[in-house]
Amino acid sequence: MSLLLQFLFSGLTTGSVYALVGIGFNIVYNSTSILNLAQGEFVVIGGLMMWFFLEGMNLPFATSVALTLTVAATVALLMERLTIKPLLKKGDLLLMIMVTIAVSILIRGLLMFKFGKDPYTYPPFTEGEPLVIYGAVITQQTLWVIGITALSIVILYLFFNKTMLGRAMKACSLDIKAARLMGINVSNMVMLSFIISGLIGAIGGIAITPISLMEYDKGAMLSVKGFCAAIMGGLGRGRGAVVGGFTLGILESFTAGYIHSGFKDAVALLIMLFILFFRPAGIFGKTETLRLRKF
Amino acid sequence: MLILKNIDVYYGKLYTLKKISLHIKKGEIVALIGSNGAGKTTLLSTISGLIKPSSGSIIYEERDITKESTENIVKMGISQVPEGRLIFKTLTVEENLLIGGYSKYSLKKRKEIKEELDKIYHLFPKLKERKKQLAGTLSGGEQQMLAIGRALMSKPKLILLDEPSMGLAPNIIKEVFQHIVELKRLYGLTVLLVEQNARSALKIANRGYVIETGRIILEGTAEDLLSNKDVQRAYLGRDLDAELRI
What CATH fold (topology level) applies to the domain B2-77+157-245? Predict the structure, then answer.
């Protein structure tokens, strides 16, 4: 029992990050119909920059968080303005997706240049005794990760449903012509979607690094897992990515625990294949919406 | 209020609007009549700034808006109800209306948006009944009301209506047109009405233009156009030769 719970908790922790990456995918996908495959890179930027400000420069915790988020937002902004905006008019989706891969390689290269190939970590947010539930140990950082993920989801929900800006972004994702006729600047909304998804990734990175360490090349795998989470729930559906992320995290953790830790990464790929073969619209997605999409 | 001078529009290599000139005076309902593919929707898109003309100019309230962005044009008070309505189907009725007020929105003006919303609910009580429903679940006529209501949320002075009768049953069309007249009266709106349904459009219009393959071929008061033989034959479905034989 305690072992099962232990696996469940560690699954929830990694699942949180997958969920955040998956949500990031959805936000960009909804406003542009493209997949930002550099999504995982922002998690790495979050973790490594946080280490840089906190340990490298000995800045206080809050300042480090603020600076890290600023860096992530800036990278996302530059990425959108320099690579996506010029291509958006042509509307070649496949080309834009390729470009995001190029950007991810570039970011990875720059991070390796600056940080080398070593993994980095910093102390958990709060010191203290871990919780013990039925013999399973939960560190305080685990609670932070799950709490921050939950909070991000709530804030995003409120943003998209209760604020004018959030509604305008939703409008862009539904009908670009109609959105423009409402006086919405679609280009700015696309930029905003990149910034928000970059920030979400970085938040995940900041929170998870004390648990799982962070190195320069973790982004690619995180992108794959996040993408898996997103398509499991049906691409473009916010709640779907959350459920998908946690499911994937838990399945991975059970596979590692009960079968072999070497199979862990295969889980996401297997799930992805099954989804694409049998339910391409995802578990929560509708087939009709899929047909109406170009991608 | 709005003057178009010699507007030329190319759609890719296609020459779609040829030297279009027209004017709309404040408080008028002007009908633009033409068949499929005549360039009606392109003309509205050009006024709204979605498409830029290759030459010619658009003057709105003494300002040249030819090169303005769509956002600014909406802010200046030209609102369009697009062809096929293009409501946000997976959002609620209320969300659709609120997004319509986007261009006028700021934290300080939250109250005004609310007032505007109440005004529209008063005008279209059915929308109020269904405000929590997804817009895609409304009937065709209700969707058209929603699209019009959404356009009104930005407090326009000039409203461009693209085929409001499309896909609606005749009695609903009548209702929609009655609403347009009422809106003009209540809001002091100026209306540019684009229609294939020439008879209904000309009945409520003051003046009209007839557009054919990208060119304006006729203009005049609504009565003149209604009694014009060419217009009757081409757009009002009246076969004069057959009538003469009887």
Answer: Rossmann fold (3.40.50)
